[in-house]
Design a protein that fits this description.
Layout: E1 2-7, H1 10-17, E2 26-31, H2 33-42, H3 44-52, E3 61-64, H4 67-78, H5 85-99, E4 104-107
Antiparallel strand pairs: 1-2, 1-4, 3-4
Helix pairs in contact: 3-4, 4-5
Length: 108
């Protein structure tokens, strides 16, 4: 299973760095392989990788935790909102990460 996580605080983000997260530290979206494949086919991850210079794919963990990058990610997600409810959920997670100065972590 693939997971997208957003720490709820800077302390939670530090614990995540050391794989020491506790209950309540993370807001997460779990992606089935089928959903991941659908999103991949839409070109979403390729666009994120290209625009933000990341490497989100099947076998990589990646993070987006700079405010400018999170804002770019938000703009990209806006283009996909009508494609799947996943994008609306991701949009809310990104807004949360920006508000609390944390990040979005892709564990694929």
């Amino acid at each position: 299973m693939k997971v997208i996580s957003v720490p709820v605080s800077l302390e939670a983000m530090k614990r995540l760095d050391y794989d020491l997260s506790i209950d309540g530290d993370l807001i997460e979206i779990n992606l089935t392989n089928e959903l991941y494949d659908e999103i991949w086919k839409l070109g979403f991850f390729n666009e994120v990788n290209s625009v933000i210079n990341k490497n989100i794919d099947d076998y990589e963990n990646e993070s987006i935790d700079k405010k400018e990058e999170l804002e770019l990610l938000l703009e990209i997600v806006l283009k996909y909102l009508d494609k799947d409810i996943f994008f609306r959920e991701l949009y809310e997670l990104i807004k949360f990460a920006i508000k609390y100065s944390t990040g979005v972590f892709f564990f694929f």
